[in-house]
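INTERNAL AUDIT FORM
Audit reference: QA-55
Scope: verify that the stored structure record matches its stored sequence.
Auditor: D.O.
Record contents follow.
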Amino acid sequence: MKPGVVIIGAGHGGSQAAVSLRQEGYAGAITLIGAEHGYPYHRPPLSKAFLKDGDGRLQPLRGDGVYESSSIDYRPGARVRRIDLEMRNCVLDDGEIAFDELILATGAVSRTPDIEGIGLAGVFALRTAVDARGIKQHMAQAESVVIVGGGFIGLETAATMAASGKRVTVLEIGERLLARAVSPVVSAHVLSRLTQGGVEVRFGTQARAFAGDEAVRAVLTVTGETIAADMVIVGIGADPDVALAVEAGLAVDAGIVADDLLRCSASGVYAIGDCVRFPHWQLGQPVRLESVQNATDQARHVAGVIMGKSDPYRAVPWFWSDTADMKLQMVGLSANADRHLVAGDPAGGAFAVYHFRRDRLVAIDTINRPADHMLGRKMIAAGYTPDEADIHAGRVSDAFRTWASEAGADGSRRVA
């Protein structure tokens, strides 16, 4: 019997890859290796519903029986120590697993600042269920919480903590929240809603040290401030987990390097999800995307490639965040946009920001306007750019429907 496919990483991408291989008709052996114990689970709720929920149960990605019924050899609590590309096997603590094809779904690891007091009790990162359980247990007695970093995880957690009655302070080294991900008008709205919810945000502020004997008691800033804290959550981003790839000799550059089929520099090796850097059709340059959608779409794509398909990966990226009473949704990549148009009234709590590059629609940010988000996914996939007049008049949906009908497109495929 041939060795089959080995998948390293049992998060959203790895779990989806295993299931998608079977859906594509793959009949060989599939081994899914997960470092965490238990079955794969949804990660987005960890900063929200999980911390609020009294029973603290995880939301499984799929029923436990799926892996057995699909003949997927799932190995939880196992760690791959080394990949031998010449021998085509993975070395674990308790033996070796051979492979024909290898999928790296190793994800990313939380950045840890090299500052005094990082190891004190009460200082957490939030990436895994273990992290979330530690935070949930500690927050029961915490009163003053400092969030280091104004990214999505930090802000979602800040809103959750404030809603539970904690005194919450967010330290953001930059000049606005979510600066690398959303437009200034969205940043300002998020700040306003968080402030109204009791969250204090300090810009241009960086933690210098965490103070305390055995447990954290305060955060010291580079500007000399002392902020009381009996709990700290560090959310300054994540780095791709490339250790296995580097040791194996795969090409790595700010992520595991892959082509537009998500093939790595060694034959029969693929990378998906947060760990991979790949050429993006929209930007025309390599990117690394951290999102559930990207991980699962890439998993489905690689399963197809292994089964002989040769279309490049061209999914439209989209993201979301539920923070306080805001459903923030983003579609497309606005990094190279040069013009922005606001539709709706930010003061009313529901609006959209259209991003253009050389008069072409490249991205849309929405707050509490899910219909606009879904429409945006169809428009960007189809290559459609709405007129400014239609945006202001609220006629985008009708205009796109007419265009799609005339072009013979239904919004589910891109028109060259």
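Auditor finding: record pair retrieved intact. The chain has a mean pLDDT of 94.
Action required: none
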